[in-house]
């Protein structure tokens, strides 16, 4: 039931208005002055006020200003009762905060029409307030869910980064450095290595299709298949009769992973992969490429060449085969295995860095080694793209054979 406050210094006028309003179903309170009305408004704010303009002490205009200055949870509709009809007086009333006017003496039909109009506005205001409350409540709930998800993603990022816990390793004749930079909290790139013997190590670079949580979960599962700590679970290794382990040909391992993904994993994801078998004593590196970008081989003299045979991504074609290829690295040579986030980095005009651009960067970083080289590579990409927010995950492995010692 709407609450109406009738304010008039004339008791007879108040009774006439109150009788009509009560007959129409409103709850009515009366006040004989503006000060008395303000007290009522503070204690029990009305939905609608009908106030005479001309009253001793605080007149209706002053009361209206005070009424508008009061803090309240919902809107209060204010009607001024006046014998004034000039445009200037009406403008003063509107400036003071009045919503409507009724000319005295009040006509019952006009009163009912004005009250009905005010009631419609109040009803719309209440509905809007309720909708805003629901929107705010929903937004608060969404923010809470977002904060929880954001916290989970931060923890997921830590877990994914922990898959590459060893970022640099000195193997004697050569050093291996790893870099993993996701475009979001988590991503679909993964790089790693696994020692096999004192002279043999395996390297891998993976790029799962898509971005985000599902891609990150895929990389976590693949990390288990190429584990450095559980050789029995590593699909790239073969257990020998004497209990030692040997690397399978990289192409054979990738073909096995391809069938495993198609037969055992219910996923729409596929991934590119480059798997390498590094012989530290001879410098021979045997690799197989499954849709991954061509690795960059930089000779000791600074010359850069892109090597590889291409190949299909893993998880697309049943029975796909993968070809091994070899390079022999000499002291001072280095090999970079990188994801497409490097060569497909785009400048503001949309032009890609591509293989020539990467070759130029490696030439510029010829004297920069190890992790410093990979960190500088990221800065070069950011400078090329003119933004810190790279649109794709960026990962790389840098295999560097140490220069021959100078004799003399």
Q: Would you kindly provide a written description of the structure presented here, covering whatever features stand out?
A:
The chain is an alpha+beta fold. It folds into 2 domains: 3-131, Rossmann fold (3-Layer(aba) Sandwich), CATH 3.40.50.2300; 166-401, 4-Layer Sandwich (Phosphatase 2c, domain 1), CATH 3.60.40. Helices cover 38% and strands 25% of the residues. It contains 10 helices and 18 strands. The strands form 4 sheets. The protein has a 6-stranded antiparallel sheet. It has a 5-stranded parallel sheet with strand order 2-1-3-4-5, with helices on both faces. Strands 8-9-12-13-16 form a 5-stranded antiparallel sheet. A hairpin with a 4-residue loop joins strand 12 (271-279) and strand 13 (284-290). The radius of gyration is 39 Å and the shape is rod-shaped. The mean pLDDT is 89.
List the helices and strands and how they pair.
Blueprint: E1 3-7, H1 11-23, E2 27-31, H2 34-43, E3 48-52, H3 60-69, E4 77-82, H4 87-96, E5 100-103, H5 108-162, E6 168-170, E7 174-181, E8 189-197, E9 200-208, H6 213-225, E10 237-239, E11 245-247, H7 250-264, E12 271-279, E13 284-290, E14 296-298, E15 304-306, E16 324-328, E17 334-338, H8 340-343, H9 354-364, H10 370-385, E18 394-401
Parallel strand pairs: 1-2, 1-3, 3-4, 4-5
Antiparallel strand pairs: 6-7, 7-18, 8-9, 9-12, 10-11, 12-13, 13-16, 14-15, 14-17, 17-18
Helix pairs in contact: 2-3
Protein name: Fused response regulator/phosphatase
GO biological process, one term: phosphorelay signal transduction system
Pfam family, one: Response_reg
């Amino acid at each position: 039931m709407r609450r109406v406050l009738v304010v008039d210094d004339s008791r007879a006028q108040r009774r006439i208005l109150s009788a009509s309003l009560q007959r129409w179903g409103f709850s009515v309170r009366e006040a004989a002055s503006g000060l008395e009305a303000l007290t009522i408004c503070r204690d029990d704010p009305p939905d609608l006020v009908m106030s005479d303009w001309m009253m001793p002490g605080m007149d209706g205009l002053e009361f209206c200003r005070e009424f508008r200055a009061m803090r309240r949870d919902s809107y209060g509709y204010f009607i001024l009762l006046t014998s004034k009809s000039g445009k200037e007086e009406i403008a003063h009333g509107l400036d003071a905060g009045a919503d409507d006017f009724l000319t005295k003496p009040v006509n019952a039909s006009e009163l009912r029409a004005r009250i009905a109009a005010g009631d419609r506005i109040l009803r719309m205001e209440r509905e809007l307030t309720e909708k805003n409350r629901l929107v705010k409540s929903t937004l608060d709930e969404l923010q809470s869910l977002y904060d929880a998800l954001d916290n989970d993603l931060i923890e997921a990022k830590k877990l994914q980064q922990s898959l590459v816990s060893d970022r640099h390793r000195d193997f004697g004749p050569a050093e291996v450095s790893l870099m993993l930079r996701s475009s979001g909290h988590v991503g679909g790139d993964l790089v790693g290595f696994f020692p096999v013997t004192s002279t043999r190590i395996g390297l891998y670079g993976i790029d799962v299709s898509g971005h985000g949580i599902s891609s990150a979960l895929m990389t976590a599962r693949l990390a288990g298949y190429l584990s450095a700590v559980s050789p029995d679970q590593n699909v790239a290794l073969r257990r020998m009769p004497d209990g030692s382990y040997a690397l399978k040909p990289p192409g054979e391992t990738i073909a096995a992973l391809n069938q495993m993904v198609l037969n055992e994993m219910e996923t729409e994801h596929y991934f590119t992969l480059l798997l390498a078998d590094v012989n530290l004593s001879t410098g021979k590196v045997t690799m197989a490429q499954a849709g991954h970008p061509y690795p960059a081989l930089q000779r000791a003299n600074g010359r850069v060449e892109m090597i590889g045979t291409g190949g299909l991504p893993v998880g697309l074609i049943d029975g796909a085969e993968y070809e091994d290829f070899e390079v022999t690295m000499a002291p001072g040579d280095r090999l970079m295995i990188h994801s497409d986030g490097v060569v497909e980095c785009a400048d503001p005009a949309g032009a890609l860095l591509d293989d020539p651009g990467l070759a130029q960067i490696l030439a510029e970083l010829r004297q920069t080694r190890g992790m410093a080289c990979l960190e500088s590579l990221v800065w070069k990409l950011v400078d090329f793209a003119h933004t810190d927010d790279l649109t794709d995950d960026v990962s790389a492995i840098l295999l560097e054979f140490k220069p021959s010692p100078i004799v003399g």
